[in-house]
Target: Outer-membrane lipoprotein LolB
Amino acid sequence: MKISYHQLKYVLVAFSILAINACSSLPKTDLTAISVKQASQAQAWEMKGKLAVRTPQDKFSTNLYWLHTPQQDQLTLTTMLGTTVLSLTSTATGAKLDVDGKTYHDSNPEILLQRVAGWRFPIKRLPLWVTGQTSAEDIVLQQYNDGSPKHVSTEYNQTLWALWYLSWQQQSGAKLPKQLKVEQSELKLKIQINHWQALAEK
Model:
C-alpha cells in the first residue's frame, strides 16, 4: 500500500486538528551535547528544522527532527503542534517506518520509503549533505568564497541529483548549512536547519 503525497499532506493536517491537546517528546538518548570545530568530528548529532516537499502532484511542509548516531538514524516529521505523523528509524539490520497509525518494515530504508510513500530518496547520503559534507561521488560545481560548497551534482541509484546550499551558519561550534535544496527531476526538497547539536556518549 502506497501513501500518496496528497494523503501524507492530509495526514499532517488531520493530526494538527485532532491533536490540539496532544504533545510529543523527542527520543531519549544517553548522549550529551559537545562542541566541535567541524561537523565531520561529530559521530552523533541531532537536528531540528523544517522540510518542504514538492512534486508534480503535490506539495507540503512539516517540522523535521533527526537523531543521527553510529548505530541508527531516526527521522521524525511533526505538525506545528509537535505531534508525530511520520517516523523513520534505520539501523544496520533494517528500517521501520511509522505513518498514519501503521508500521512498515524493510531491510533497506530507501526501498521502504519508496514502497510506502512512493518516492525514493538517497537517505544514506543525507547525513553528509545536511552537514555540508560531500562524498567521493559528489561533484562540487560551485563554491562560496570561503570554499564552502554552493552547488553540488551527484548520481545515486542511476538518478541525477542536484544540491544547492542557499546559506550557512555556525552551530555547535561548526559551520553548517542553514538552508539547502535537494532536487531531481520530479522531487524537490528544501531543508531549513534551525538547530544542530553535536553529541557524544556520556
Summary: The two ends are 41 Å apart (CA to CA). The chain has one domain: 5-22+30-201.
